[in-house]
């Protein structure tokens, strides 16, 4: 996913440079404050000619007037600074950014060391050098100045974004991830929403590196701040890739929730696992929805495999559904809450979240439940589907097993 280049014009920012003083002498002002430095006799003629050309908007004449300065001996630091500032203006106004860039850089180098640039001017110069190098497609140099500009002005989103883009275009994928991830963390600490492009660059750089852990961290932020079908699908694929086999059904449930089971094969895998785990009503519901949505070759159509799954799930679901009340009564008589949790999960699979919440809550309160994390995950889903978002978050937060806690975190995003 290549970034979109910034095509903004650089001319306005490049001509906002430090004031250049030509002629006169640096004498003490009233109050003891020294006058600003001025260019020396060594370059005063060239500097005055350049200023006259600027006033007349004759940019080529300006550059010509300054062309001999580099060979002049005995220049002071302020001579170097002033000539660089004048040369920058004329080169930029004539559209010659390749000439403007070294003049800008020289002005920064001399101005920093000698105090000719205050902090605001230094920040602006670093931004200008990032911009002009990006426009010149000198991405390594744009990234170099962008990093410095970001350190000098960390709250400036534009320069941070341009730096990330430059690193991406170098390309330096590890640097992109290393630059963007802590920036996103800073924005989160300030309760600010990260830019979509920054998230995209981070995720893309991680994919380029074939680093699944890096990609997952980036995609998790994408679904948190800028959810899309592509982001959810990427998260599903990454989660399924490192899912313990006994948790594949929970992963597929979530994938179905966010609408990323796009093919008949995905649906068939989900339905088959639901049947295998003892949830025929869930299998029936997902297959029927997929048939209606045309996932098996068109609306209303079925493949032989889908037809077989539907027939099997219907045959198993009818008696199971009819026995739920009896199962609930028997579970209530048990000393531990295992059976009540299981009945609650069955209610959830049949689309009865209120009954599911009540049964799972009773089971957890009774105690003795071994799969407590999975029970809390189911409780959170049931509460969410029953409309209790706050209660759902509480249940999801109670999930502690690392992989299930990740899934619970994804479900929490649905509760916002």
State the share of residues found in helices, binned by percent: 55-70%
Largest sheet: none
The count of strands amounts to 0
Order of helices and strands: HHHHHHHHHHHHHHHHHHHHHH
Radius of gyration: 33 Å
> Count the helices. How many?
22
Average pLDDT rating? 91
Distance between the termini: 28 Å
**Unreliable spans:** 1-13, 24-30
What fraction of residues sit in β-strands? under 5%
* Global structural class: mainly alpha
The gross shape turns out to be elongated
Describe this structure in words.
Helix content is 69%, strand content 0%. The protein is an all-alpha fold and 416 residues long. Helix 3 packs antiparallel against helix 4 (77-93) and helix 14 (264-276) packs parallel to helix 16. The model is unreliable at 1-13 and 24-30 (pLDDT under 50).
List keywords for this structure.
mainly alpha; 416 residues; disordered N terminus
Write the SSE topology.
Blueprint: H1 11-14, H2 44-55, H3 59-66, H4 77-93, H5 97-114, H6 119-135, H7 139-152, H8 157-169, H9 173-189, H10 196-208, H11 212-225, H12 229-241, H13 248-257, H14 264-276, H15 280-292, H16 304-322, H17 324-332, H18 338-349, H19 353-366, H20 372-385, H21 389-397, H22 402-414
Helix pairs in contact: 2-3, 2-4, 3-4, 4-5, 5-6, 6-7, 6-8, 7-8, 8-9, 8-10, 9-10, 10-11, 11-12, 12-13, 13-14, 14-15, 14-16, 15-16, 17-18, 18-19, 18-20, 19-20, 20-21, 20-22, 21-22
TL;DR?
By secondary structure, the protein is mainly α.
